[in-house]
Design brief:
Strand order of the largest sheet: 2-1-4-3
Structural class: alpha+beta
Largest sheet: 4 strands, antiparallel
Radius of gyration: 14 Å
Oligomer: single chain
Helix content: 40-55%
Order of helices and strands: EHEHHEHHHHE
Number of strands: 4
Length: 148
């Protein structure tokens, strides 16, 4: 299964340096949450669409949405940016908003195919929201370490 560790970092350079750490951002001093199989390109754009009411296409075209920051030639892990719009939506969402978004997000083709339920999605959203709240408070951005 693909490993997706979402984490906050002060900037792109610091985020990409997690590739130098064995095991990724979990070995660093960054705020990290592991979400297996919740990819930082399609799944996060689907989530942004659910949380903000925009279309998937709009979410996927936002600056920093699923943008590869590390070398495309890497063989085992990559660092991908999460849009600032999604960070803000997650940081601003109430617990009720997150529970309400979990069903539609879990119902997307990608998450359904991975066996994600509304309950699993709600747990993931709570964890992602926590990272987003702390990132916003620290002036950090959110990233994903994506290991194959």
């Amino acid at each position: 299964m693909v490993m997706c560790d979402y984490f906050s970092a002060p900037d792109d350079d610091a985020a990409v340096r997690v590739l130098d750490e064995y095991g990724g951002p979990g070995a660093s001093a960054f705020d990290v949450v592991s979400l297996k199989g919740m990819d930082p390109v399609v799944a996060t754009a689907r989530l942004e669409a659910v949380l903000t009411g925009c279309t998937y296409e709009e979410a996927s075209r936002r600056p920093r949405a699923g943008r590869l920051l590390s070398s495309p030639d890497a063989e085992s892990a990559f660092v991908v940016s999460v849009s600032d719009t999604l960070r803000e939506a997650l940081a601003s969402a109430s617990p009720e908003d997150l529970v309400e978004a979990a069903g539609p997000w879990a119902g997307t083709e990608e998450l359904r195919a991975s066996g994600v339920t509304s309950e699993t999605a709600a747990e993931a959203l709570e964890l992602l929201s926590g990272v987003a709240v702390r990132a916003r408070a620290a002036g950090h951005r959110v990233y994903c370490w994506w290991a194959l």
